[in-house]
Amino acid sequence: MDKETDNGTGNGMKPIDHLTRYYTESDEDARLTSRRGRVEFLTTMRYIGKYLEKGMKVLEIGAATGRYSHALAREGYEVAAVELVRHNLDILIAKTEPGEKITATEGDATDLSFFPDGAFDMTLLLGPMYHLYTAADQKQALSEALRVTKKGGTLCVAYCVVDAPIVQHGFKAGHMLEFIESGVVDKDTFRQAMIPEELFQCCRKEDVDALMEGLPAKRLHYAATDLFTHYISEAVDAMDDETFDLYMKYHFFLCERPDMLGVTNHSLDVLRKL
């Protein structure tokens, strides 16, 4: 739905082709290291840190170029990183520093059969739910992530939220009628169609709740990881350190408020395996 990125029509292309093209042409590290991107990164790390203990084994599924995997490995945790896109995986491997306890594997979030049940204390699913286009695949990815997590362990799942891009790339950028006419957005529900050409699959909290029905997990937190940040991204990038620290304090104060959750571009579901 982001009209600033030319994803093309992709006739004959498979979903992996769209992902490979996008991540080959974009700089995923820069997205999370810019000041605006650090809001999402710092928020996610804050929630991860609530449940990490010394000696824990961590799995990151859909690790991209390793921003989170490397951060945790450099804190001394043993990390297994799984990534579907070979371009991303090569960058992750190249950035591994001596002494990091990190293993990198090419793999799909819907099939983690190379890992046994209950192998990890914490599992991170911070990218795959952005790019799975059927409810069956989404449910399978969640089931696999829970399967490889120990009972009582923590699962962190990231989602793209639909209404922020509706406002930002639809109404603000002037593409809303085009989105509706092309079938990308439903004219009545303003939901996004599940099509790989759009690359990012967006949802609402009620969709996340529906996916979790019947799975052996209890929600600990549901948080907006960037909240207002992308609406005021230039102002956030221009903040001095003192102002940015104050902005983060404000962000953390609000990010779990139910009346704020639909505003964010990204959300984080923190779960405990039962």
Which whole number gives the mean pLDDT? 92
Strand content: 15-25%
Q: What characteristic shape results from the CA principal axes? A: globular
* Helical proportion, percent range: 25-40%
| Number of H- or I-type helical stretches | 11
Distance between the termini: 36 Å
Structural class: alpha/beta
- SSE sequence, one letter per element: HHHEHEHEEHEHHEHEHHE
Query: Unreliable stretches, pLDDT < 50, 5 or more residues?
Result: 3-10
Quick tags:
eight-stranded mixed β-sheet
Overall description:
- With 274 residues, the chain is α/β, with parallel strands linked by helices.
- Helix content is 38%, strand content 19%.
- It contains eleven helices and eight strands.
- It has helices spanning 15-25, 28-33, 35-49, 67-73, 86-94, 135-147, 163-172, 176-181, 205-212, 233-238, 241-254, and strands at residues 57-61, 78-83, 102-106, 120-125, 149-161, 202-203, 217-224, 266-273.
- Strands 1, 2, 3, 4, 5, 6, 7 and 8 form an eight-stranded mixed beta sheet that branches.
- Helix 5 (86-94) links the parallel strand 2 (78-83) and strand 3.
- The longest helix has 15 residues, at 35-49.
- It is globular and about 50 Å long.
- The two termini are 36 Å apart.
